[in-house]
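Go through the following before class.
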Amino acid sequence: MTNDLATLIRQAQDDDPLRALHATTALRREIERLEAVQVRRARVAGLAWAQIAEVIGVSKQAVHKKYGRR
């Protein structure tokens, strides 16, 4: 299965539940990867953990715990 997001989105809507579940899982992994990249970019740009947390919709502690020690 390709990791192209548009393809994964289409496959996540498949009538075959296993194919749809596989695509949904791949989408979640890709979104997590993309979020980590953007958090890293935000920190390099000098943004505070509180600002990043607000955008993500979690507490400052949660975002720092997830991304702060990488």
Q: What stands out?
A: The mean pLDDT is 93. The CA atoms of residues 11 and 19 lie 7 Å apart.
